[in-house]
Each structure stands twice: as C-alpha cells, then as structure tokens.
C-alpha cells in the first residue's frame, strides 16, 4: 500500500532523527530534520493555532506514523511520513468487511514543559484484544507505544500549551490487504495520527444533557461493543442525530437484550453517584472497558468511595445525586440531566462534588501537577 504522497517510499534512505526513523528521499528527510531541529533550537515553537478556541475537530498536523504487517503477522519497523491521504486497494479488508479498530489517547504538556502520555500500554493491550476478536494482526505493546511516541515527538509543536488542551492521538489498525470473499485480510496497517483538541462536546465544560435511546442499541451480547471496532460508531449516528436535533448533548443507550439497563453513551462510559457509592455498568462484553473509566474507578477507591460495577437499571437514574461520563476524548464530564420517556431527571453539578474531585485528580496526574505514584504517566519529552 502506498501511504505517502509527499515522501516517496521507494527510497531506502533512513535517517535516524531524535530516536526515530523516517522513510523518504534525502531531500524530504532533511526538510523533516531541519524542521525538528529548528523546533528544538527555538526551545518551544508552537504551531499556528488559536489555542483558546480548540474544540474537537480535526486540525491537520505535520506527520503520521505507519507500519504494515507481513503474512507472518509481524509488523515492519514503521516510519513517519507527512500527514496526508492514504491509498488503499478497493478490495481492502477495511473497506469491504469492516476490519478496523480505533484507539484514542492524549499527550499533555505539563507546566514544567514535559510531554506526557497517559497509560498508553492500556490502549496497546486493548487494541491487541480487539484485534483478536476481529481476526487481525496487531503490533506488540512496545511497537504501539513506539508509534505513538514518534507521532507525538514529530508533532511536538502541536501539543497545546499547558492548560489549553492536549494532542489527541488516534491509532488505527485496519485490514489493508485485499480479499474478495469474506475472510481476514492478508495484511494490516497500523497508523497513528494526531490532532490538538480541547473539549469534546460543544457544551465545553458545561454539564451535558443526555437522552435515553429506546430504539437503537449500541451493542449486543456476542458483538463487538467491548472492543473499539470502528463498526461500533456508524450505527449509532442516527440516534445521535435525532437526540442532537432535539437539543440533547448525546445519547445514553440501553442493553439490547432487555432494554432495562443503561449501558454507555456514544463515546463514553457513564457513572452514577449515590452518596458514598459510585455505580457504573459492568464490562460484560457490551460495554467498552474505557481507560478513563478504569482510572477513575481506581482513584475513587483510593479516596474511599465504594465502587459498584454491575447492571444498572434505567430506573436508578432517578436515585443518583450526580452523574458523569468518562472517556479519553470526553475526560470526566458532568451530566446535568437525563431524559427518559419524557421525564427529565436533574443532577447536581459544580465544584465540591465527587465528579469535580475525580476530574481534578485525574487531570492533575495526566498533566504532571499531581505526583504519579501509580506509574500511569509516560514522559516522552
Ligand atoms: C476516545 O474517547 O478516545 C474515543 O475513542 C471516543 C471517540 C470515538 C471520539
């Protein structure tokens, strides 16, 4: 598969720059080298971005990382290339049979200038688990982290200043080999790109208003709801569009089997706070094992809260004092109301609440202002 537009792949020139390799012509590579060393020279050069008005839309950065598997399932070392379009065989597994997984993680710039990744090993392991479910080759945990690191380092000027957001990394794994019949693709591509982001929802940091969807489920037992398959997202767009057209922020889905239990929001997990107890749907195969979800649970337990991972009946929404959503893109987002069958239940929002306490500890660890005693943070620059 020819991935490169700006840097031809044919060349064997492989300069080693700041610990990573690049494919490309000598000329193209020296442009890259010049660019990076210039950024280094000027201490910290930032890209030309309106950092105060970042949302969650794609901002085109400089480089992306890619590697392909061969028939034995091993991936080549990989290389950085200019961010741009990719070329695919029309019979590629991703296009015909949906063999694809996404991941999401963030690089933060701390007040001290360090650039930090949050628990990238968990993203790597989740991608491996998803790849097994989807019969795909996957890169090793080390290779995954290496690809992410290279992407961040090459796009360092796109990591927002402290407090202005993060560089969202989107690792993709997809069947790039051709197959006409329904079969696992013979070749896979692992690709990482990034975009600077701030708040996921247009509401910014204001509380979300969710709508409980009763017709379209997000996942079903035996399906792929528990892994980050690309095919988990397209089917819920219609429910999201309906909810958003009625002024809601997002959709809360019910389980496909009984329609009685809450599952998750389109791109985030959900938590209910009831006194000293925090409740969230258990990861039974239909719920995505979110990394923010897992981290928030660990922080809550450390703080002495009781955490229950179990089936959560939709009726329980009435009994919660606070509700919040978690996700890499979402962060820890307060929910102000949930509407179910024309009844709107409102929740406490604001400072001095459990949601805020959990959010500030998590963000503190992610950005390096709270000491990382759990070895969650990987310093890459
Ligand atoms: C993330 O939180 O990183 C996600 O993958 C959600 C995304 C689909 C926007």
TrEMBL record:
Under Pfam families, the record lists: Aminotran_4
- What GO biological process, any one, is recorded here? amino acid biosynthetic process
GO CC annotation terms, alphabetical: cytoplasm
Query: Transferase as a keyword?
Result: yes
**What SUPFAM superfamilies does the record point to?**
D-aminoacid aminotransferase-like PLP-dependent enzymes (SSF56752)
GO MF terms held by the record? L-isoleucine-2-oxoglutarate transaminase activity; L-leucine-2-oxoglutarate transaminase activity; L-valine-2-oxoglutarate transaminase activity
- Keywords per UniProt: Amino-acid biosynthesis, Aminotransferase, Branched-chain amino acid biosynthesis, Pyridoxal phosphate, Transferase
Key word Transferase present in the record? yes
| Entry EC number(s) | 2.6.1.42
What is catalysed by this protein? L-isoleucine + 2-oxoglutarate = (S)-3-methyl-2-oxopentanoate + L-glutamate; L-valine + 2-oxoglutarate = 3-methyl-2-oxobutanoate + L-glutamate; L-leucine + 2-oxoglutarate = 4-methyl-2-oxopentanoate + L-glutamate
Which positions bear N6-(pyridoxal phosphate)lysine? 228
Gene3D superfamilies in the record:
3.30.470.10, D-amino Acid Aminotransferase, subunit A, domain 2
Please list the cofactors this protein needs.
pyridoxal 5'-phosphate
Q: Which family does it belong to?
A: Belongs to the class-IV pyridoxal-phosphate-dependent aminotransferase family.
Question: NCBIfam families under this entry?
Answer: ilvE_II (TIGR01123), PRK13357.1 (NF009897)
Q: What is this protein called?
A: Branched-chain-amino-acid aminotransferase
Q: Which species?
A: Capsella rubella
Taxonomic lineage is: Eukaryota, Viridiplantae, Streptophyta, Embryophyta, Tracheophyta
